[in-house]
Each structure stands twice: as structure tokens, then as C-alpha cells.
Amino acid sequence: MLQMQFLDRYSPYALAALRIVTALIFREHGTQKIFGFPAPPEQGLPALFSLSGISGLMELVGGLFILVGLLTRPVAFLLAGEMAVAYWMVHAPQSFFPVLNEGDASILYCFVFLLLVFTGPGAWSIDGRSAKSTALQ
Q1: Does position 137 have pLDDT exceeding 50, yes or no?
Q2: How many structural domains does the chain have?
Q3: Pfam family example for this protein (predicted)?
Q4: Distance from the CA of 19 to the CA of which of 65, 96, 112, 128 falls in 20 to 30 A?
């Protein structure tokens, strides 16, 4: 019991680390779709206002918001929805099994973003700083 209480004080930092690492990796999908970096998608760069282009913008901009912890809950809600749609539209029709349809990442992103909807950003976030400054006024 004592060990659990000791670890509890680090929960906001562990949550922040999960948020930051998730956002960094998630943004990479956006930079690939929008800028072709680090490598262009196999099908080439999508039109900006296509479904893939809009998802790239969501991944790029939404990922930045999640990274810095700005408007974390509403942005995470939108991104969780994006990942659910991506899974059911792109991956699930290929196979029932995520390991075969390559939808593992979409599922994990969806549930990490849902976690952030309910927990908030954790430590090291703009949302947390603005909450502290509002409480001081």
C-alpha cells in the first residue's frame, strides 16, 4: 500500500509523458501526409481537402495541441473520433484482426486520446498553467 501511495504522486508526470510521446509520434503521421516528411505516403501526397488531407491536418495541428497540452480534452475527443473512423473505414474492412489489418495504432491512439478526454493533460501543459493562473486570481 505504501508503494502505491509513493507512486501516485508521479501520476501527473507519467500521464504527461504519455501525452507528449503520443503527440510526437501522432504528429509524424500528419507531417507525412501534409509535407511528405520523413517520407511521402505510398499513394503520394493527398489533396489537402480530401479525407486523407483533412486527417493529416488534424494529426498535425491536433497533435501540436496535445503535445503542448492546449485544449487537451476537446482536441483529444476529436482525435479519438478520427482514429475510430480511420479504424472502421480503412483497417476493419481488410480483416477482423487488428494484427492483420494493421489497425493496432489506430486503436491505441483512439484509447489514449479517450483517456486524455477523461483525465486531462497531466503535468507540463498549457491547460494546467492556465488553470493555476485562474485559481490565483
Answers
A1: no
A2: 1
A3: DoxX
A4: 96
For residue 38, CA distances in Å to 20, 64, 86, 99, 120 come to 19, 17, 21, 24, 30
**Cell, residue 56:** 493529416
Q: Is residue 32 part of a domain?
A: yes
Judged against a pLDDT cut of 80, whether residue 134 lies above it is answered with: no
Residue 30 lies in a domain: yes
Length of the chain: 137
**CB contact burial 47-63 (16+ within 10 A = b; e otherwise):** eeeeebeebbebbbebb
Q: How far is CA 25 from CA 19, 50, 67, 96, 130, in A?
A: 10, 22, 10, 25, 26
pTM listed for this prediction: 0.92
Say if residue 38 is preceded by a cis peptide, omega within 30 of 0: yes
Question: What are the pLDDT digits (tens) for 53-105?
Answer: 999 999 999 999 999 999 999 999 999 999 999 999 999 999 999 999 999 99
Residue 5 belongs to a domain: no
Number of C-beta neighbours around residue 12 at 10 A: 17
- In a domain? residue 94: yes
Domain extent, residue 106, equals 13-136
